[in-house]
């Protein structure tokens, strides 16, 4: 058994190395004074200075964050209500059917989603741009939010809902004062996941961006096609740091929520003992 655990730990560290070494290699050469990634000739911040001095690139970064924020907010609202609807479906067969349809959207390739939306918007004569990309991002983020919120609903104490209804609370009050606070951690997790997916998306945005709108991922792709530039390394490094900050922020939010739940559980146990 000990040998198995040692092997599993070695395998885990090997997989982390395979995944993270290329990222650290990219970050390392973002500080290279030379113009390529063949040899490190000296430390410099010129590539980061060029990134922040590029007005066109700053517009794309702003577009990316506005798109990610709006799509995450709207997808979180829609996905949360959808998860609640799925949870309260009485027939198990219908609930399973809706979940299967939701899971199909999760595993559908981004290229297929982008192409299908392109065909749809072309048939509806919808101009490609910010609005088309926003709709597509909301569409592929909603299933993610549903999957993040549903487990919290299954962990929710249904007796609290029943008690609120017995005390005269209407459906809106039950939703806002009982259900949503109980699943707040799942909603927050869904928002962070949706924000991250939208921030990193390339394939769907590439299909639907049009001529007047673009995001950072599409711009990085177009620059990479023209040749190696260490400005791409600098942009990628900044995006990696942003993703890392989001992960750390989400970790602290989850930790604080878990501590709050533990305190509530201890308080309930103490009340039962005194009773």
From TrEMBL:
PROSITE patterns: ABC_TM1 (PS50928). Keywords: Cell membrane, Membrane, Transmembrane, Transmembrane helix, Transport. It comes from the Bacteria. The chain crosses the membrane at residues 12-31, 57-89, 101-124, 130-154, 174-196, 234-253. It is found in: Cell membrane. Gene3D superfamilies: MetI-like. GO terms for biological process: transmembrane transport. The keyword Repeat does not apply. CDD domains: TM_PBP2. The keyword Transmembrane helix applies. It is a multi-pass membrane protein. Residues 61-250 form the ABC transmembrane type-1 domain. Its main location: membrane. One of its GO terms (cellular component) is plasma membrane. InterPro entries: Bact_Polyamine_Transport, MetI-like, MetI-like_sf. Belongs to the binding-protein-dependent transport system permease family. CysTW subfamily. This is Spermidine/putrescine ABC transporter, permease protein PotC. It comes from Abiotrophia defectiva ATCC 49176.
């Amino acid at each position: 058994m000990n040998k198995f655990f040692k092997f599993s730990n070695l395998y885990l560290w090997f997989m982390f190395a395979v995944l993270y070494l290329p990222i650290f290699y990219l970050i390392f050469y973002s500080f290279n004074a030379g113009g390529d990634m063949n040899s490190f000739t000296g430390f410099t911040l010129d590539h980061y200075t060029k990134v922040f001095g590029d007005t066109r690139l700053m517009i794309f970064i702003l577009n990316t964050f506005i798109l990610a924020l709006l799509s995450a907010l709207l997808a979180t609202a829609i996905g949360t209500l959808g998860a609640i609807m799925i949870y309260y479906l009485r027939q198990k067969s219908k609930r399973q059917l809706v979940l299967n349809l939701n899971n199909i959207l999760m595993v559908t390739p981004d290229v297929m989603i982008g192409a299908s939306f392109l065909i749809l918007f072309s048939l509806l004569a919808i101009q490609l741009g910010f609005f088309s990309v926003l709709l597509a991002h909301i569409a592929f983020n909603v299933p993610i939010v549903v999957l993040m919120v549903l487990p919290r609903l299954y962990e929710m104490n249904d007796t609290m809902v029943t008690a609120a209804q017995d005390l005269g609370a209407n459906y809106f009050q039950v939703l806002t004062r009982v259900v949503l606070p109980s699943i707040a951690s799942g909603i927050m997790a869904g928002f962070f996941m949706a924000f991250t997916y939208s921030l990193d998306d390339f394939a769907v945005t590439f299909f639907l961006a049009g001529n007047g709108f673009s995001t950072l991922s599409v711009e990085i792709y177009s620059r990479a096609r023209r040749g190696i530039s260490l400005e791409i390394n600098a942009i990628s490094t900044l995006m990696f740091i942003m993703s890392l900050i989001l992960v750390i922020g989400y970790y602290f939010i989850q930790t604080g929520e878990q501590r709050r739940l533990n305190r509530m559980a201890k308080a309930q146990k103490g009340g039962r003992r005194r009773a």
